[in-house]
Amino acid sequence: MTDFTGLDIAVLLLYLLGVTAWGAWLGRHAKGGTGYFLGNRDLPWWAVCLSVVATETSTLTFLSIPGVAYLGTLGFLQLTLGYLAGRIVVSAILLPAYYRGEIATAYTLLEARFGVGARRFTSGIFMGTRLLADSVRLFATAIPLALITGWPYSFSIVVIGVLTLVYTYFGGIRAVVWVDALQMLLYLVGALIAFWILQTLIPGGWGAALEGAAAAGKLQVLDFSPNPAIPYTVWAGLLGGGLLSMASHGTDQLIVQRLLTCRDLSDSRKALVGSGVLVIVQFALFLMVGIGLWAFYEGRAFDVPDAIFATFIIQELPSGVRGLLIAGVFAAAMSSLSSSINSLASASAYDFWAPLADAQGDEFRTFRAGRVFTLVWAMLLMGAAILYIPMSEDATAVEVALTIASLVYGGLLGAFLLALRSRRPGQRHLMMAMGAGIAVVTGIWIFIPHLVGWPWFVPIGTLITFSLGTALAARRAA
Fold it and tell me: How far apart are CA 143 and CA 150, in angstroms?
């Protein structure tokens, strides 16, 4: 796109090449599986906290959340209340279990309670979910690169994927966490710059923007409607958002892996709860940017919701600043993608390969296998992102990704809650209960999505999995 100047390109290239080289350098001492995947369990909690936030929101926050407010209201913010509550519960009941013994992945806990089959079953569900959800995130990041260069989305996806792969492959989890921390700060600075520039571009500034948004009902935050078809209500936020956060931060290897890199349980708790506070601030900032964009464009229609903020950056911001904000978009994307690749590789190496290859406890062999899996998962994520391109016009990427994750999170959370009980179902019955919870939620999504909003998927799946598992445990005991 002609609006992108030489200065913008220089800023962007300097950032991309610099962060790739720095990330690869950070992992230069990683020689074993524990160092490569867990950072030798000595990373500071505040860096892990920033990494958690960057991993879970990243590009979806930067590009999609402004689009959510642009098309609707501030109601999405209700979910963040549940996000914080869910993290507090996880820090109280699940993190202590993870810090008893040497656990390499979240699913090691299920093996101890139910057997190796349960560990592999849940780890496989994690892999499938991450592949689908994070490929959507990767696609969202290709939008600004395609706008800048005129490249097809598919080629843009490959460029981003390869750059991220380089430092993830060489740097491991230590590079992922430290680069995440830097990248989160960069894209928050980018959002604040956009917020300030909107003040100068909107006639009448933010005062006029908020006045117009209030008259249009776009500043509504709380909705107490009991209708489950409405996705953003107080009840869906507290219950759906809370259980979603418990599942994503208590059972998903993507986040649990980061929490296991902390030095002890206390640091891990600070990182987890602190991330909940930061997420509230971050979502509020990006939703307000969306309100400003709505005022600036006067509600103009866009073909792709996720292109709204990207279009503003490319077309309206001054040279240099534009390059910095696009660097923020790539920072957000690379942090999420690198985390996904590394966590998928760790689950593959520890949950599947090591037991089958009789390599448990062999740090060097696990390290080598982990690098191979890093390459494999990077290729799969890029391929899945390309396949998503034809479906990109139906909804914002953040809602698509959260919906995909919510289909299985209830089953996973129900399984972990059953693992904490003294009376538990057997391994086969556990998988039956999880399968039932996931199947019912998927059926709702396919056949009656207009009756039940996606934030209710996790509560429904958790209830079915836990209730059926409890009933099967009672039957087993009898």
Answer: 10
